[in-house]
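Page 47, continued from p. 46.
Same chain as before, 375 aa.
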Amino acid sequence: MAAFELSAEAGRRKISGLYRFLSEGHDWNLILLRSAEQLTAERIEQAARQGIDGFLVGMPESDEMHKRHKMLGIPTVFIDYPDKALERGFQRCAFVFDDDRALGSVAVRHFRTQGKFKSYGYAEADTMRPWNTERGKSFMSGMAAHGMNVNVLKRTDTRPVEEIAAWLADLPRPAGVLAAFDDVARVLLEACRRAKLKVPEEVAVLGVGNDPLICEHTTPPLSSVVPRFEDESYRAARELQAMMLSNRPPQRREFAFGANGVEERKSTAKTHQGGALVQRGLAFIAENVLSGITVSDVVQHLNTSWRLADLRFKEVTGATIQSAIIDARLEKVKQMLSETDMRVSDIAQRCGCEPGALRNLFRRHFGVSMRDWRE
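Result:
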């Protein structure tokens, strides 16, 4: 049995990941629930009586529903944030979820390549879900590393638009504002219109989720961080299949997925003269970072001088091209650590590094070993 909330883009992408897994020849007799209203305790217990082999839950559940899963003991993968208490009491479950640290870092990099902003903001949603605050914490931490503070507006999507407009008007301009998700970003754009603030010249707005029904129909169209929803559900299906076939608890219980960059639209158009060049360089690095590229390769791709390319990188990102390559390589390492079961030696080989050198580099950058970070 699989349950996905299909009224939103995230749910539709997750169901695509499930069907991509099934298209590879996995023969499931699938019962699909399409909304939270259909996912009831009675429905779960009825499925258990019918001999269901596993549950794939792609929407948030209450504590009471978690208790039902634990009581039934049927292999279950939740595409949701880890519930430590449930993990301790229910061995045959796993969690696949958004890596909000990575999503926040993507937002930081995007704003840093857009221009020199005088201030930054984070607009929270009115929800207790972990992603609401965790994305903000990551964004604030990343900006603090560049010497910038982030102003936070709580419960943005339930405030009067006049209050939001006043908050935006008080930010020193130009300002870069990250919204907790696309619906909040849509509210921000409406508040900018009310306050007669030009987007993106005075306020650049970035969402999370990349829902085309929102992003392509706001004024101006909304730039948005692109979570890896389809990959999340593909991995969830794979983990559930393994549990159902082996009848054993999974060795790993948590899998975190980052972002596929930013879908850039007009709400965050570039204002820095070197922004376009740096973004081309970063895109080239991201695409080729596991092929052993060097600074010379990046400079040759940009068709400019080494000195000018490095100068633009320092102006826009505060780091050299070499640092950007190392950072991108380590992001790939973190991705492989969290999303795969690859051994450290195999990851090092993929990166073209000696295992010992990669271990030392990882520890210097993050203060923990690769093994500890994975755990």
